[in-house]
From TrEMBL:
SUPFAM superfamilies: SPOC domain-like. Keywords: DNA damage, DNA recombination, DNA repair, DNA-binding. This is Non-homologous end joining protein Ku. The gene is ku. Residues 226-237 have a biased composition (Basic residues).
């Protein structure tokens, strides 16, 4: 069953407008969640806010947001003051520019969301915007309030819908030039050839199974065993490596790797 939209609003390009609905393209709902318990009683432990100076418990109605601007000095903002910072981008994705599809590096991509028309009458307008971007090889750039902040977003056509990526803020991305040398040393051609052969031997079709979570699967095994009051079977440890010191003859290691792959194929 498709998830319910967590955002509804309008997609707008100049005078073309259509109602749309959006939902996250990823989810961690199926990840294991743990509660903190009292080991003696088995009861859940609850957390409470307390005043850092007096130690008194704080009632929910007394909590307020505060911005620290000096040592032990805060500017307090009420919830309605934050909510009343009205922005046009709260419910409208107004595309104000387009850029080439391949001009935004992957490092700027943050969270993906699926965007779909939310009204049969608006489907044609939605399709026109989507298909025009696909035909021109462009993506749309807009701004939108999501997760309590206004964010730059990228609209990328995909199939019958549009993927809306929130983009990272400029101060969140570190320039790669600070980390990668301008002119890294070039590998020897024969070494490169052996690595290419090794890559070819490991080629496979992409599958979601490649990114499964074996730790969660093992935890689920343990939980099921404990639910049945049985002791979970212990997994055998991986054999220790006989690599010795860290000095590696890269050519010899590659030749042995390719030989092992050849034997696997036969």
């Amino acid at each position: 069953m498709a998830p319910r939209p967590f955002w509804k609003g309008y997609l707008k390009l100049s005078l073309v407008t259509c109602p749309v609905a959006m939902m996250p393209a990823t989810s961690d709902r199926d990840k294991l969640r743990f509660h903190t318990l009292n080991a003696r009683t088995g009861n859940r432990v609850v957390s409470r806010y307390v005043d850092a100076v007096t130690g008194d418990s704080l009632a929910e109605e007394d909590e307020v947001k505060g911005y620290q601007h000096g040592e032990d000095e805060y500017v307090m903002l009420e919830d309605d003051e934050i909510a009343n910072v009205a922005l046009d981008s709260t419910r409208t994705i107004d595309i104000d520019m387009f850029v080439p599809d391949d001009s935004i590096g992957w490092i700027w991509y943050d969270r993906p969301h699926y965007l779909l028309p939310d009204d049969p009458i608006g489907e044609e307008a939605f399709a026109v915007i989507r298909d025009a971007m696909a035909a021109s090889g462009t993506v749309g750039i807009s701004r939108l309030v999501l997760y309590r902040r206004e964010r730059a977003v990228m609209l990328k056509p995909r199939g019958r819908g549009i993927v809306v990526w929130t983009l990272r803020y400029g101060d969140e991305v570190r320039p790669e030039a600070d980390y990668f040398p301008d002119e890294p040393p070039a590998p020897e051609r024969r070494t490169l050839k052996l690595v290419e052969e090794l890559i070819d031997a490991h080629m496979a079709e992409w599958s979601p199974d490649m990114v499964r979570d074996p730790v969660q699967e093992r935890l689920q095994d343990i939980i099921r065993a404990k639910t049945r009051k049985r002791r979970p079977a212990r997994r055998k440890s991986a054999p220790a490596s006989d690599a010795g010191d860290n000095t590696i003859d890269i050519m010899e290691a590659l030749r042995r790797s390719i030989g092992a792959e050849s034997r696997k194929r036969h």
